[in-house]
Amino acid sequence: MSKLPAFLSSFNNLLTAHPVCFTNSLLIVLSAGGEKIFQSVAFVCPKDPELARYYGLLFLIAPLFILLVSGMALHEGLWHVYHGCLNRSEGAGLTQKQVCHSFWSTFFRSLIVPCAWLFVSLLDGTYIVCSLGEDPTQKTEESDSIRAISQMAGWIFLVAVVIVGTTVTCCMRCNAQKTFLELHYIKVYKKVEKEELEKKMNEKAEKMAKVNVISLFSEDLPPKETWDKVTVPVVSEDSDAAYYSSLHKWSDEKKNQNSSA
Predict the structure, then answer these.
(1) How far apart are CA 162 and CA 169, in angstroms?
(2) pLDDT above 70: residue 34
(3) Where are the beta strands (DSSP E) in 98-236?
(4) 82: Cα within 13 Å, side-chain hemisphere
(5) What is the overall mean pLDDT for the chain?
(6) What DSSP element (H or E) covers 54?
């Protein structure tokens, strides 16, 4: 029993030290499993060879595009740079270098899941057999040959990805201006900065929310008119005032009325 806590501790240390590697590995496993489930549930190769050709290719290519676009759209770092980029203050706009760096770094990171999906699809060979076979619904020597070619293409694709990825990584590492320890320090600093920023924002938001809630219940239960006002949704972009909620807006208007009275 004593070995289990030690194993869990070692596993936790591994996750803490290599979170990106663990996340990528998990995404690869999920994409491989998702491809098999998707194939068994949704894929039915038609008997018409002409239709089957496009049907198989569509099932092979369409998920790659969807996974790539979804991966980029869900990447927080991309929106951290691009969100509100068209309405930035003067002097705070993005440079062409920043735009390209953010886009392409997110693009290449988002290729992991589509590449895993493509490798599993080629290794299985079902989509290729459906697309290229003369009689895709029957198991023949031709279908076995096509499946073998598909599997070979899958392994060649994987080897090519590994070679290119390793080469690019080595070139970037060897040509880096900062040392390994400097990069590690920057990584640690960004993590601590994010934690401290979240902590400070929570403290500030909690303080502001308490003031607004106390203002709402300053005289027992509010009347229906007040409930109606604090229920109406507020879109912060609709006004120059920084109102984060209907209660925040109502509380601020109440303060202005009291100060002008």
Answers:
(1) 10
(2) yes
(3) none
(4) 15
(5) 83
(6) helix 49-73
Q: Are 247 and 213 in contact (CB under 8 A)?
A: yes
Q: Can you read off the two tokens belonging to residue 260? A: 């002008």
- First and final CA of the chain: distance in angstroms? 72
Of the candidates 204, 257, 212, the one whose C-alpha atom is nearest the C-alpha of residue 234 is: 212
The pTM is what? 0.75
Q: What pLDDT is attached to residue 2?
A: 47
pLDDT score of 21: 66
Contacts of 57 (CB under 8 A, 6+ apart): 127, 131
Contact residues for 59 (Cβ-Cβ < 8 A; gap 6+): 39, 42, 43, 127, 130
Q: Measured between alpha carbons, how far is 118 from 60 in angstroms, rounded to an integer?
A: 7
In this structure, the number of other CB atoms found within 10 A of the CB of residue 247 comes to 19
Asked whether the beta carbons of 249 and 243 are under 8 A apart, the reply is yes
Query: CA-to-CA distance for 115 and 67, rounded, in angstroms?
Result: 10
